[in-house]
Amino acid sequence: MDENSPKDDQSNHNDDSYSETDEIEPKLKYVRMQNNIKDILENDAASCIAVHSKFLCLGTHWGRIHVLDHQGNKIQSKTLQGHTVAVNQISIDQKGDCIASCSDDGKIFICGLYTSDNNHNIPLGRLVKSIAIDPSYSLNGGNKRFITGDDKLVLYEKSLFSRIKLTILCEAEGGVRSVAWMGQFVAWASDTGVRVYDLNAKCSLGLLKWSKSQSALPEHYRCNLRWNNERILLIGWIDTVRICQIRKRSIQEMINRDLPEYIVDPISTFQVDFYISGIAPLDKQLVILGCPKELDDDGKSQRPTLHIVEPKYQDFITICANYLSLRGYKEYSCNDYNLDCLTDENRFFIVSPKDIVIASLYDIDDRIEWLLSHGKFELALEAVTINDGKDCKKYNLINVGRVYLDYLLTTKNYNDAGKLCLKVLGRDKKLWEDEVYKFARVHQLRSISSYLPRGEITLDPLIYEMVLFEYLKMDPNGFLQLVKEWSPKLYTVAAVVNGVLEHLLNHIQYKNVLLEALAILYSHDGKYDKSLAMYLKLRHKDVFQLIQKHQLYQSVYDMIEGLMDLDADRAIQFFLDKDRVPSDIVVKKLQNNHRYLYLYLDALDKKDTKELKGKYHGLLVRLYADYSRDKLLPLLRRSDNYPIQQALDICSQKKFYPEMVYLLGRIGNTSEALGLMTRELNDMESAIEFCQEHDDEELWNDLINYSLNNSENITFLLQKIGTYVDPRLMVQRIEPTMKIPGLKKALVKMMCDYNLQVDVQKGCKTILSNDYFNLHEKLVRSHQKGILIDDDQMCGACHRKVIVRDPRNLVVFYCKHLFHKECLPDIEQENCGICNPQKEKTTLGK
């Protein structure tokens, strides 16, 4: 049942993938769960499991809860979506009518499988690592209670008017890692140890503390708790197993002492040489799911193991141990595995994110299967003939005898094996399919490939795929020829494509051949999204058209750097167009390629939106300093979204003096900025503009001080300073003995500029004074009784321009129409002759 082998895992035979640590005949058989589980785990990953005698509940990383039978078939057509992130734990009540689950999304999900009367979806607003539902939750008269564990242990129970009442049972030391409920007792594990709580007495029965070495280990190790019965508690923590018993105190113990009725007594404690992923009872023995502590030579995890041990007081005896080849085991750690069991049936459910295997005790068929898999053919024949094979349900003399064919192939007796095939196969499709697998094991499929039926009778697609894969490994050119000749209806194209991609990684010398085969296979299957990787390897720029045509935007998240390698400008345009790829993802994927990151952020900054608001300007400062200095100073000037001190440090390291001048001026260190302009840049023009911009007398003095030791700077400053400050400030401080080139012209220019400045100031003063009195006169003579008269208004009778020099010669109505007195026929008339309003007139000057 290897993860890369054909999946006929519904059979009960024991495969080499579940191997013994030695040649001891095993006690357990393994079956990989299929049916709906295969589809569920293909698109999701298992995070936890809870098994009941009626069904099992599987929690996934997408927050879903699947209710299945013990063969992996869905019982309910509708999947329960109780959470938005991975389900941490599922608990089922004793009757099997209600389930409870928790997750890191901070929600508790209580669901009745047959009624919704007691359903709850409670948001707690904090991570919930564990949950346990009252075993009697759905019984008549049972308490509607459940317990959650996070940073504390909390009991929830349904009170009057269906309200939920909260009771904190304990403040956990470092957080609750797991909870287990049996009868009136609740056990939970924290960083300190395991506590047992008596719900009837409402008190703790004591703390089983961890050792110092255990408590110092990282937080992510899960503690496995399981009740064997109402009084026996099994604990698996890191690499230590504890078995405890809840017993009643004797009368003598309780006399004159205020003690709980029950006490927790340790029965056995021992250490194993692996990390414990799960623990379960098997009669008087224990089944322990373990994960090896050491990594393999490639730094990957080794296969998990299933151990049957018999505990002693401070030790144990290993009965048997099996290596489990679960799908993807190399990428998983001990916390990725789960173990649950049906104690009455001695069935154990081993769960990894992408696989579920069921282990159960061996029967006669299982024993025969193990004997055959270990090459003990004589013993297998003997076993199948005992009692005329009446106890065997799976094997008979014929099918055990056919196993000899495998032996012939493994001993390279291909002629004898061929003779056997001629006698057996004929036109029987089933026999062909069975025996082709045997040839596949010894890599002899090429010898029969030309004889495989491809006309009226065709075999299972997997047969043709096996042949293709053998050619792929042994003869890539022959593989390409078969892909051209065979109809794609014979095999599953997607499976062959995956094999080619895997093979391509390790056989670069056949790159062109395999890419040509991939092109044909993709055209057969129409999987355009899968062709992205091939296009990138071919460096074919039509990859962008393919993405846009089939809306494969999310598929490129892991190909961002590859697309930039292919065509950086086009890739950036694609990323930015309609925000198809979020900027955070692009930045994360390009964080190790600063050149590409610069190109992307530079383009992003040009279309900076309100949502971003310079989000990456701090990073862009460093990138501009490395790749495009000319863009650095404009960015510093226009943006406020970068750490100024960090930018100053970058510019200082690279001696970018203009940028340093700007940043120093921005933080108020104008004196140092001015010093850089004069000492490092020798840019007196910019220094003068800088002093003029800040208009600070001290800054001008600093500029003069910086210039006194340089005769050329003095000459330049004498020519320019007269426009801005009193030139005497500088002239008086020049050493009389200093030789200054062009002094005469500079002094003439300085005096001219200074006189011009004085004349300009006088002219401005005169204009300002005249404007003041003119405006004041106009205001006084044109604003009377709240009526404002403009010099440009016309007389309402003669239509001549009104000259407001003597207001007494004007008549103004409240409608703001005005007339010369001599133009009115009746000076005493009350209403305006233009608009005829019923208002009084007023005569200016009265």
What does this structure look like?
The chain is an alpha+beta fold. Among the domains are: 7-43 and 284-362, no CATH class; 668-782; 785-843, Herpes Virus-1. The chain is 36% helix and 22% strand. A five-stranded antiparallel β-sheet has the order 1-26-25-24-23, with no helix packed on it. The protein has a four-stranded antiparallel β-sheet with strand order 2-29-28-27, with helices on one face. The protein has a four-stranded antiparallel β-sheet with strand order 3-4-5-6, covered by helices on one side. The longest helix is centred in the last third of the chain and has 40 residues, at 743-782. This is Vacuolar protein sorting-associated protein 41 homolog. It is a peripheral membrane protein.
Spell out the blueprint of helices and strands:
Layout: E1 19-20, E2 28-32, H1 36-43, E3 46-51, E4 56-60, E5 64-68, E6 80-81, E7 87-92, E8 98-103, E9 107-112, E10 120-123, E11 130-133, E12 145-149, E13 153-158, E14 164-170, E15 178-182, E16 185-189, E17 193-198, E18 203-209, H2 212-215, E19 223-227, E20 232-237, E21 240-248, H3 251-254, E22 262-271, E23 274-282, E24 285-292, E25 305-311, E26 316-323, E27 338-342, E28 347-352, E29 355-361, H4 364-373, H5 377-385, H6 397-401, H7 403-410, H8 414-424, H9 429-441, H10 461-474, H11 476-485, H12 493-506, H13 511-525, H14 531-538, H15 543-549, H16 560-566, H17 568-576, H18 583-589, H19 594-606, H20 617-627, H21 632-638, H22 644-654, H23 657-666, H24 670-679, H25 684-694, H26 697-707, H27 711-721, H28 728-731, H29 743-782, E30 783-784, E31 787-788, E32 810-813, E33 818-820, E34 841-843
Antiparallel strand pairs: 1-26, 2-29, 3-4, 4-5, 5-6, 7-8, 8-9, 9-10, 11-12, 12-13, 13-14, 15-16, 16-17, 17-18, 19-20, 20-21, 21-22, 23-24, 24-25, 25-26, 27-28, 28-29, 30-31, 32-33, 32-34
Helix pairs in contact: 4-5, 7-8, 7-9, 9-10, 10-11, 10-12, 11-13, 12-13, 16-17, 17-19, 19-20, 20-22, 21-23, 22-23, 23-24, 24-26, 25-26, 27-29
Subcellular location: Endosome membrane; Late endosome membrane; Early endosome membrane; Lysosome membrane
Domain RING-type: 795-836
GO molecular function, one term: zinc ion binding
